[in-house]
What does this fold into?
Amino acid sequence: MTLQRRFSPFVSLLSAILLGASVCSAMLTPAAALAAEVPEPQIELIPAKAAGQSWQVHTQIFKPEGKGPFPLIVFSHGRAPKAADRQALQYPVLRGHVAYWQRKGFAVIAPIRPGYGATGGADLEASAINISAAGVCSGTPKFDRAIGNAADIVSDVVAWARLQKWVDSRKIILVGQSVGGITTVAAASRNLPGVIGAINFSGGTGGEPEKRPAQSCFSEALTDLYKNYGRTSTIASLWLYAPNDLFWGPTQPKSWYQAFAAAGGRAKFVVTGPVPDDDGHKLIAKGGRLWGSHVDPFVAQLGFK
It folds into this structure.
């Protein structure tokens, strides 16, 4: 996952950004060149509210060439188990991933949520669980509160974006990885104005691959949460998981999807091929050739090339 500094797979990976991991099955451009073609982001402090507090959310903005208005990706990053790594977060989205969307004409907004990086502040996404060194789960999970706080930030970022002249306010797709993936599902279930689709990469919470490989804590509570999201969600979504994901394993994500779909949620669930020689939780960073062939047609169905 890292060649320079090891971050948790829950965090957008610095090493993958620098290397520009392959982002599409059809792309033959060298990976490093993909990352290099993306300029430095604009920075905006976007006002938002969560957990009864007001925030100025440090947000990276990447625009394609031209004046727009552009269709928009709102990208939600993952979560590192260690506070020090959350506080060190600098890159909420992979540059190679930005390049993938810019080639389709999209702008990309990547907010750094409260408790992370330059936004800082209190940790609003703590789920109130513990995992012992022996891999024993304890506590009473507060997944609904943690993910709800994250989705509040995404909702306010979407509202801000729709007011910008360079954004096509009717063509917004939510995308997220890991905790950002389930945050994307949660925010999409609110049927936010202008949001027409959602893509969940490896979404979930409560996993710890070193202590409980391939089996997260309190998965049944997450199943119930996904069921709740399915009851209100109306937009199309795509869920992507690798079978060798060391956070969730091959079976838990399918149970989450089944609960979501049974409650009425619209989703296509895809088990990609395994991420070669690595943790499948790094699908978004290292599995471009595995997910590109699924994301491309999903985006085309929404009306984009």
Summary: The longest helix spans residues 143-161. Residues 14-125+152-301 form a domain with the Rossmann fold fold (CATH 3.40.50.1820). The beta strands are 42-50, 53-62, 70-76, 107-111, 129-131, 137-139, 167-177, 195-201, 236-241, 267-271. The radius of gyration is 17 Å.
